Amino acid sequence: MSSTAAPGTGSGPATPAGDGPAGQVPGGRRGLWSVDDHLADVLGAIQPLDPIDLPLSDALGCVLVQDVTVTVALPPFDNSSMDGYAVRVADIARAGEDAPAVLTVVGDIAAGSGEARTVGPGQAARIMTGAPLPPGAEAVVPVEWTDGGTGGGPATAMRPAGAAPQGATGEVRVYRPAAPGAHVRGRGSDARAGDLALPAGTVLGPPQIGLLAAIGRGTVRVRPRPRVVVLSTGSELVQPGEKLGAGRIYDSNSFALTAAAREAGAIAYRVGAVTDDADELRATIEDQLIRADLLVTTGGVSVGAYDVVKEALSAAAEDEPGADEPGAEEPGDEERGGGVGPGGRPRPAGGVDFRRLAMQPGKPQGFGTIGPDRTPLLALPGNPVSSYVSFELFVRPAIRALMGLEDVHRPRVRAELRTDEALTSPEGRRQFLRGAYDAEKGTVAPVGGSGSHLVAALARANALIVVPEGTTTVEPGTETEVVLLG
Amino acid sequence: MSSTAAPGTGSGPATPAGDGPAGQVPGGRRGLWSVDDHLADVLGAIQPLDPIDLPLSDALGCVLVQDVTVTVALPPFDNSSMDGYAVRVADIARAGEDAPAVLTVVGDIAAGSGEARTVGPGQAARIMTGAPLPPGAEAVVPVEWTDGGTGGGPATAMRPAGAAPQGATGEVRVYRPAAPGAHVRGRGSDARAGDLALPAGTVLGPPQIGLLAAIGRGTVRVRPRPRVVVLSTGSELVQPGEKLGAGRIYDSNSFALTAAAREAGAIAYRVGAVTDDADELRATIEDQLIRADLLVTTGGVSVGAYDVVKEALSAAAEDEPGADEPGAEEPGDEERGGGVGPGGRPRPAGGVDFRRLAMQPGKPQGFGTIGPDRTPLLALPGNPVSSYVSFELFVRPAIRALMGLEDVHRPRVRAELRTDEALTSPEGRRQFLRGAYDAEKGTVAPVGGSGSHLVAALARANALIVVPEGTTTVEPGTETEVVLLG
C-alpha cells in the first residue's frame, strides 16, 4: 500500500529558515546541511504566486484561491432526464400494454426551449432530454413506454424533428403509468444556489473545470503556473545536434530539467548553456528575470576554480567586496551561508548561499533570491544525475509550492531491496540511488551504480532508493524507503 | 496494492472490430453492445499517428518509434569526477599527512579544455570536475586531499580562477595516495558507442530527454501528440460567463472534455457549442477536420427528435439516402451498427455508427470515421456525467492509442465498498458510479447518486465504482472494482 510522503525522512525535524538557534550552523560542526534543513530553508522562503483571473480553459491544474459558490441552481429548472412525453400522472394511472392511455400531443419541447405550453388533462408534450418540464406536467414517460405517436406499437426512438415534424402533434399511446417526478430532474437537485461548489485550495482537474462551467463561471481566480527559467553553465557544453569538440560534452541538464519543470506544472523556459564567465552569467540571469518566477541553474556550485555560478551569485560576493581578494577565502569559509549563518546572521536580502549537503549525489547546492523581485534561485550541481536528483528533491517542491499546492512532494513507499550485493553508502550522507520499483511485487532494485554521471542508468530508473545518513550498508532483502518518480 | 488494469473487466473477451461472427450483432438480441465490445471496436479502428521528427524540447511525453543507439561514448573521454589535481600515482604512493608529496603544477584544466599538457613525473595539473584527464596522469586527488597550492595546509576549495590565476602554477602538496583510476570516470563507463540508449516504444520523460541530449540527439523521431477537437451540441447551451436565458444551461462538457483530453496527453481544441442543426454541425465538423486527429462530440446521440449528431453523422444517413424519409426508421433500426452490422456487413468506410451500450451512464454512443482522412470520431452522450465517464472509458484510451502508448487504460484497483445502504444497479448494465477512493484504507465510498446530471458530485469524486452487468445489488463491505481517475 502506497503512502504519500512526509517531507522529511528520518533525520529529525527540519530547522525553519531564519529560525534556528543563533550562532549555530545548520548541520553542525562539519558545515554540512541536512537534506531536510535545506528543503525547509527553500520551502520557507517560497511564497505561493499571487492569484490572477484566468479563463476557465486555461485553468487546468491550477489551484483555486477562493471558495466558489453556486449562483445558479443545478439544474436551473425542472427538466426531463429522458426523451419522451411530459404528462399528468392521473391520465396514465391505469395505462397498460393492452390498454394504453391515449393523450393529445400539444407540442414539442426541445432542450433550450423557453416558454412551453401548459399540459392540460388528457394532454402530453413531446419532450427531449434536458428540456424544461412544461407547466401542468408532473412526470415524463420515456419514448420507449409509448408508441412514439406513430400508432404502430411501442417505439424505440423518436424520428428526427426535421424529418418528421408531425411527431409533435396528433396522439400518443402510453403503455405504462408513472409516479409524480418520474424521469424529472428537479431544479437544484445537483446543487442549490448558495451551495459551496468548490472550496479554496481545490486543484482544478477536468471535472472541477466542468462544474465551474456548469455554474456559469467563465473565469476563475487561481494561482498561475510558475514560469521557471532553466539554464546550464559550463564552457564544455555543446548543444545536442551540433559537433562535439575535444574535451566537450553535450548539454543535457537544461533539457532534462526543463522537461521536469513542465511535468511538475510549470511553464518552463530553457536557456542555452552559459560559459564559465561570471559577467556573462550575471547578464544572462538579469535578462531572464523578467519572465522568471523561479530560476534554476546547473553547474558551477562546487569547490573548483571555475565554479561560475558560485563566483557570480554568492551572497558573500555581493555582501563583502573583499571576498574576491586572495586570502579572503579561508578553509571553512564555505561553511558559511544558509538561513542563519555563523553568528546568527540572517540570509542577505539578495544573493545566493552556497552550501554543502549531507547527501549523495547533490552535495554542493545554492539557494537564495535574486533581482528586484527577490526571485528565488536554486543553483544545482552540474553532474547530470546530481542535478536531476536535486531537482526532484528541492526544485519540484518549490514549483509546487509556488502553485499553492498543499502536497508538494513525490509519493514515497517502502519496498524490499532486491540486489545481489549489499549496497554501500557513505557515513553521514543520505544517499539517493536510482532504482527500478516494482509495484506488483513491492520490490526495488538498484539501477546502475552511485556515479553521478550515469545518465543511461537514470533513464532506466523509476524511483530513488533512500539510504539514511546513519546507514553505510544495506543488505539484500531490507525494507527501504523509495521515492517514486514520474 | 494497486495494479494496472486489463482493458476489459469481467464480461468476457472483447470482439475485435470486423472480426466477430458474421450475422451476429455484438451484445445479442437486445442490440446492446457490451462496454468491452465497444472499446475493442474503437481501439481496433485507431492507428497510432505517423511518426515525425521533433526537437528534443518538444518531445516530452511522446513515444519513441525507433531504437536509439549511442553514437558517442558516455562520457566521451576519461574525465575527473572531482575538483582537484591530476597526478601520476607513483609520485604520491608514500604521501601522508606529515609527509606530503610535493608536485609541480604544470597548468590548469577546466571543463571544456581541449589539448592539455602532459603530466610528467613529479608533476600535477589542476583539474576541474568533468575536465579531460591529461596525458600521463593516472588519477585525480580531490582538492581536499591537498593544500590547494597555497602552502597553507589542507584546503577545502580552490580559489576562483579569475581571482587567483596563480593557482595553476607553483607547487601543490598532496597528503594522501590514490589508486590508478581514482576519481576518474572512464570513457564509455556510462554507455558505449553502439549501445542501445533507448528502445522503440519508450515514453520520453525528463530523464530520457536528458539521455538523448547527452548523446547529442537534437531531434528525435516520435509519435506526435494527437490533436483532439472537442465540440458540444445543443441549442440549450450557453457559454459560461454569459447570461442564462429561460430553459438554458451552461455548456460544461466542452470545457471538461478539452481539459481531460489535455490531461490525457493531447493537444486539445475546444469548439464552442453547436446548435441542434444538422447542417451547421456538418459544416463545423468539416471545418475542424483540418486540425483534428480525433473528434469528440457530446450530445445528440440518443433517441430524441433533435439528436443532431446522430441525424447529421450516422452511417445510415450517408449510406442510405432513404433513411431520412418518414417510415425508414423502424423499431429495432438502431440496433444496427458497429464493426459488424446485422448480416455481417462491415462498418461503412465513412460515417458514424450509433449504438446502445449495456452501461450506465453512457448508454447511447456513436463511433466511426469521417472525412477524407477517415478521422476517428467519438460521439458521446450529452449528460455531463455520461460524457465524462464515456471520455474516461473510451476517448482517453483512444487518445493514448493514437500516441502509440502501450498502456492506454486508467489503473484499476479493488477496494472495500463503504456505504450505509446497498448500491443498486440495473440488470444487464455495467454501472460506473462516482466514488471517493481512499488508498490508505483501501476503501471506496459512493459520491452522489447515479444521476447522470450530478456534476457537483462528480467534482468530488476521484474514482469510478464498477458494478458488473450481472450484479443488481452491492452490499456494504463488498470488495468492488474501482477505476482510479486523475
Automatic annotation (TrEMBL), chains A, B:
Pfam families: MoCF_biosynth, MoeA_C, MoeA_N. Its EC number is 2.10.1.1. Its cofactor is Mg(2+). It catalyses: adenylyl-molybdopterin + molybdate = Mo-molybdopterin + AMP + H(+). Residues 1-30, 315-353 are annotated as: Disordered. SUPFAM superfamilies: MoeA C-terminal domain-like, MoeA N-terminal region -like, Molybdenum cofactor biosynthesis proteins. GO terms for biological process: Mo-molybdopterin cofactor biosynthetic process. Residues 1-23 have a biased composition (Low complexity). GO terms for cellular component: cytosol. Catalyzes the insertion of molybdate into adenylated molybdopterin with the concomitant release of AMP. PANTHER family: GEPHYRIN (PTHR10192:SF5), MOLYBDOPTERIN BIOSYNTHESIS PROTEIN (PTHR10192). This is Molybdopterin molybdenumtransferase. The lineage of its organism: Bacteria, Bacillati, Actinomycetota, Actinomycetes, Kitasatosporales.
